[in-house]
């Protein structure tokens, strides 16, 4: 891991959105709130995202695109950026992981890995 990669720390909180889910139709909606901390000495701009989403049946989908929630934020040193988004699974349990392509203030592109996190309907015994 490079110093640039180590300068970005990512935390995730998830929530099952019961009122917008329909288990009988295999529709389970989850929101996730991501907080990206820049613990480095220079600003870093989030350029793009890459997600790998796996449901309990082993089905995997990938999502790639520019920025997050319509933004390409620059995160200054010792600050953080937070956003909330969501995904729909066909199963009550799944896992998401991925990475952000970041751009340092001196023009270097580097990856900030998003550790795998669980999406689960509360009360599951998995």
Automatic annotation (TrEMBL):
PROSITE patterns: APAG (PS51087). Residues 2-126 form the ApaG domain. Gene3D superfamilies: ApaG domain. InterPro entries: ApaG-like (IPR050718), ApaG_domain (IPR007474), ApaG_sf (IPR036767), Uncharacterised_ApaG (IPR023065). It comes from the Bacteria. This is Protein ApaG. It comes from Shewanella corallii.
């Amino acid at each position: 891991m490079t110093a640039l990669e180590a300068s970005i720390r990512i935390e995730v909180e998830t929530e099952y959105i019961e009122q917008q889910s329909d288990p009988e139709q295999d529709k389970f909606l989850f929101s996730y709130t991501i907080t990206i901390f820049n613990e480095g000495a220079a600003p870093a701009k989030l350029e793009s995202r890459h997600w790998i989403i796996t449901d309990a049946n082993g089905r995997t989908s990938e999502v790639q695109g520019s920025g997050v929630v319509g933004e390409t934020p620059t995160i200054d040193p010792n600050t953080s950026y937070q956003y909330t988004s969501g995904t729909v699974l066909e199963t009550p349990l799944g896992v998401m992981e991925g990475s952000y392509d970041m751009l340092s203030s001196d023009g270097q592109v580097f990856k900030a890995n998003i550790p795998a996190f669980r999406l689960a309907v509360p009360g599951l015994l998995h």
